[in-house]
Amino acid sequence: MIEDNEYNAWFDGACGPINPGGTATYGVMIKDQEGTILVWEHGLVGEGSAMSSNLAEYSGVLQILKYLSCRPPGRITIHGDSKLVINQLNGKWRMRKGLYLSTAKEAKALLAQLHRLGWQINLCWIPRAQNKECDALSKKGCHTDEPRSTHRKVAKRQYSRD
């Protein structure tokens, strides 16, 4: 039943101390319909010239989509402060060239797969001020030597690309 599978999620990404070219990290939070935190995670995307904040943002939303792929279909609202990610995944903006393009295409393909499986997914842009928890979470990996994950890693899986 969809009523038992309702979620809210937030994501953010960061690249520092320089963008592009720094250390790219993401932060993700997923809650169930009662507000219980199911995922509270930050992770390293990579370091160096191939990294950017847009890539980090897409890596965050991709982690949410991977989490959903292991669950029965339901409803979710995914919140993010990246107009690029939200508008591209909603089909309002085209995907162009950029360091993020490969990850963006992977996210778009997985989003389409989840829709085919019955997921109702609403991607919602929010101002940065309403995304403070994930903003701070995403920046943990950029500026410290602490472990990169505070919760659990979503298992990596292979996805077909239609």
Structure description:
The chain is an alpha/beta fold and 162 residues long. It is built from 4 helices and 5 strands, in the order E-E-E-H-E-H-H-E-H. The protein has helices at 53-69, 83-89, 101-116, 132-143, and strands at 6-16, 23-32, 37-47, 75-80, 120-125. It has a 5-stranded mixed beta sheet. The longest helix has 17 residues, at 53-69. The radius of gyration is 15 Å and the shape is globular.
Pick out the low-confidence regions.
144-162
If helices are DSSP runs of H or I spanning 4 or more residues, what is the number of helices?
4
Rg from C-alpha positions?
15 Å
What share of residues are in beta strands?
25-35%
| Alpha-beta classification | alpha/beta
Average residue pLDDT: 87
Largest sheet features: 5 strands, mixed
Dominant shape: globular
Secondary-structure element series: EEEHEHHEH
Strand line-up across the major sheet:
3-2-1-4-5
Q: Which percent range fits the helix content?
A: 25-40%
Total E-strand runs: 5
Cα(first) to Cα(last) distance is 27 Å
Please supply descriptive tags for the structure shown above.
27% strand; 4 helices; 5 strands; 162 residues
